[in-house]
Amino acid sequence: MNQALDLLREIVPKVRETEAGCLAYIAHTVTGAKNKNTIVFYEKYKDKEAMNVHSANFPKNFEKVFPLLDGKMDLKTCVEII
To answer: What is the pTM of this model?
Structure first.
């Protein structure tokens, strides 16, 4: 887990700096024994095109992180209501 978090400390600022349409990109850890190795991202993009740019960069940005994960990713796209 620590190795993954160290990599994210490098990746997250890079994404914020290089993806102009990225309005928010924040990594969180989840507290509690049941979810202690869970990482959640809050992401917000200017528009669909900005999200597509991020999606295209995602595999390269996370190539070192993927081997450290248990393989379970749960992606959800949400629509802001207010």
So the answer is: 0.86
